[in-house]
């Protein structure tokens, strides 16, 4: 059995800007697991501002804490949760490769093994936080490209955020919905004031995402109780324990699940179960990450009816999608292919300049 970690950079069409950071290209760490004639792939990206996981931390954790614990016996069954390492991105990286191997050995897609419900997903696309004029231009371009759901990044001061939404809504056709993501950028009084103003003006908003800092759960509950628009928790939720807290405190109408934050597919499925028990719907989102991670998220989303919203626009933001996959990304439409595992037809790691960080033979 051989394990390798490859680092490549995937250029973006335009800089990705939020209230937290600006990204010009995706650092994609690809884990390659070869055994018994099968190859499984996983990937993760460093998002220090969100997970605290750097390239070095992900690489060292995967190499020294996770890889040595792998055995050939693990490859012949549905993956179990990996031991907690303190680096969710590294767990996600390796577990995704194990799921890919599992599907390839079974000759079935991950979605079908999990009980596939959908073969088509409808994703929003993110409009980065810029001046109102730039955001209007980007929104119009997205609509021309066929997108009917725009995720609008805000989180500045009240006046600027009101101006952004007013300018965008002035050019929207009736068929387009907005998801407003403040990325923790407001406090409770500001959030209540601005959301009520959005409501008063009748903007076509589907939800408000993470209006307050992640740890301010009481504030989130207060905002939710004070406004009519659905509130979605994102940064407040990393894992199933966080889901329980948010649900117990009544902080959110929707929870956003991201594989890189929770540590992989197994934990994401547990989070879906908790939400379903509580009658709360989910969004399946992504970080600014490579295509293999997006494929894994698509497989989970296609298998879980409780996931009613999709934010998997990463491939639409790349300058060019590297590789070939059974799952097709066509504008807002994601068509889930039936190929085994994650549906990787050609990983094409050589398409973009890359560096092998390490290789270990077990």
UniProtKB/TrEMBL annotation:
One family name in Pfam for this protein: MR_MLE_C
GO molecular function: metal ion binding; racemase and epimerase activity, acting on amino acids and derivatives
Annotated binding of substrate, by residue: 21, 126, 151, 286, 288, 311, 313
Annotated protein name in UniProt: Dipeptide epimerase
Listed PANTHER family: O-SUCCINYLBENZOATE SYNTHASE (PTHR48073:SF2), O-SUCCINYLBENZOATE SYNTHASE-RELATED (PTHR48073)
Top-level EC class as recorded in UniProt: isomerase
Organism per entry: Sphaerochaeta pleomorpha (strain ATCC BAA-1885 / DSM 22778 / Grapes)
Keywords: Isomerase, Magnesium, Metal-binding
Keyword Mitochondrion: no
